[in-house]
Amino acid sequence: MRILYADLEREWRGGQSQALLTLQGLVRANHQVELVAAEQSPLAQRASQMGIRVHASPRFGLRAWAAQAMARLSARAAGEPFALAQLNEPHALTAAWLAGLHRRMPLLLSRRIGFPLQENWVSQARFRAVERFVANSEDVAKSLVKSGIARERISVVNEGVSIPELPNSEVRARARKRWGIGDTEFLFGCVSVFVPEKGQRHIIEALSVVRQKHPAARLILAGDGACRGELEILTKRLGQQIQFFFPVL
């Protein structure tokens, strides 16, 4: 099967990690897959390194450029036509809708958040163009139903992750030394973008309660985002031992 996959996010977040895992799975299943992505985005670079054909769209006017690429690819006469388009986030859906892709092939839209769908006429027109919503949980599926999407248009596909092997004692010791964490200290970790809906403030507040009984408990937050300053202020106000790690992709 020939599949057109699209994700226009410029950053690397959980959705893009899932996109790369999906692309890897499709390739292993012997499907022909091509990716439309933002130029120089982490996903575009990593997919290209895997040998996947990437159609990179300029960042300025991204959705318009991506729509042109999708229209060109779907109209290409040579070779097997695309059987479907899988859209990994809302910007990709907008580009596909502008390209009229729904008139040529089924559109699948991944959905990972439980926020209500927008109700303006443009958004509703985009959602009507979707053949199948792919929700990552029953809660997300219920939120789609509350927004007016018929249950028969929704499939729930629980997403997985690639679990690496546990680090050996040498790697563990080196990592703890890097962060100034003793062997007897219990370390919590949270890896996520710093935005309100991820709720890092709750784990910071919870740590202050935990440390009343277990003073050796420590926390590392890995990520970055709009709430970074707010989380740092909260950490200082509560006097907690929290390390912030801001990875560079």
What does this structure look like?
- This protein has 249 residues and is an alpha/beta fold.
- It has two domains: 2-156, Glycogen Phosphorylase B (Rossmann fold), CATH 3.40.50.2000; 169-245, 3-Layer(aba) Sandwich (Rossmann fold).
- The protein is built from nine helices and ten strands.
- A seven-stranded parallel sheet has the order 3-2-1-4-5-6-7, sandwiched between helices. Strands 8-9-10 form a three-stranded parallel sheet, covered by helices on one side.
- The radius of gyration is 21 Å and the shape is globular.
- The chain starts with a strand and ends with a strand.
The H/E string reads EHEHEHEHEHEHEHEHEHE
Compute the CA-based radius of gyration.
21 Å
How many domains? The number is: 2
Overall geometry comes to: globular
Strand content: 15-25%
Mean pLDDT: 91
Helix and strand arrangement:
Layout: E1 2-7, H1 14-28, E2 32-38, H2 42-49, E3 53-57, H3 62-75, E4 84-87, H4 90-98, E5 107-111, H5 121-128, E6 132-135, H6 138-146, E7 154-156, H7 169-179, E8 187-191, H8 200-213, E9 218-222, H9 228-238, E10 242-245
Parallel strand pairs: 1-2, 1-4, 2-3, 4-5, 5-6, 6-7, 8-9, 9-10
Helix pairs in contact: 1-2, 3-4, 8-9
List keywords for this structure.
249 residues; alpha/beta; Rossmann fold; 2 domains; three-stranded parallel beta sheet; globular
Summarize this, please?
It contains nine helices and ten strands.
